[in-house]
Backbone:
């Protein structure tokens, strides 16, 4: 049980680690594309994509404080929520990004269907989505626990849950084809420190070990799903 509401800025740190979600999302994008980042927060992923891909990228974010922080970075971020009018005014796009956003929505299919209308033919949604089938969650369920946390897979603000299989089904039902499906591993998750004897392992060894496990069984050891879902050209 959480003692207080999660920090609204808990994920707002810029990381260029190639194994982190921001860089993995950027690697799924073609340089110099037109991109919309939905629910972009303070623009952390927006900035990574702009830097790495020389992209023409805009963001939309419902929280005024986060928009202010994003514009202070020099980013083009609009206050509001995704709507047909916004898409009509600013689209179409080569890519629409949902970086750890879909799990926070009461009806993610409705929003992705709306985004679909804002994509060019052959355009893609790229998204990072927590993996509720991670082995931490599975072992907790076996013990009768489903405890929310202030961040991570069991973030208390998550409304929807996805596995590797249900992500594929989700996008295919909406008319997309999955053209990339990867994962992050995040060896810094608190659960690793709590459940695994990390102190006996060097950081490079930890990364190699969990990376190999995730490559073998991404649905079990992946922390976030990294997906590119593409429309027919």
Residues:
């Amino acid at each position: 049980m959480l003692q207080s509401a999660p920090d609204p800025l808990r994920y707002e740190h810029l990381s260029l680690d190639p194994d982190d979600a921001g860089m993995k999302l950027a690697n799924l994008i073609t340089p110099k594309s037109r991109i919309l980042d939905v629910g972009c927060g303070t623009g952390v992923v927006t900035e990574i994509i702009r830097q790495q891909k020389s992209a023409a990228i805009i963001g939309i974010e419902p929280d005024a404080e986060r928009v202010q922080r994003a514009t202070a970075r020099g980013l083009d971020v609009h206050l509001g929520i995704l709507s047909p009018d916004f898409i009509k005014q600013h689209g179409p796009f080569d890519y629409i990004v949902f970086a750890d956003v879909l799990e926070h929505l009461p009806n993610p299919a409705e929003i992705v269907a709306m985004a679909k209308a804002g994509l060019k033919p052959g355009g893609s949604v790229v998204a990072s989505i927590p993996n509720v089938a991670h082995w931490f969650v599975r072992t907790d369920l076996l013990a009768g626990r489903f405890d929310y946390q202030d961040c991570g897979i069991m973030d208390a603000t998550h409304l929807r849950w996805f596995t590797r299989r249900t992500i594929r089904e989700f996008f295919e039902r909406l008319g997309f084809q999955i053209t990339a499906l990867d994962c992050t591993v995040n060896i810094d998750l608190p659960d690793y420190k709590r459940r695994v004897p990390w102190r006996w392992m060097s950081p490079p060894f930890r990364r190699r070990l969990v990376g190999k496990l995730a490559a073998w069984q991404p649905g079990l050891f992946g922390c976030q799903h990294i997906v590119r879902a593409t429309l027919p050209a």
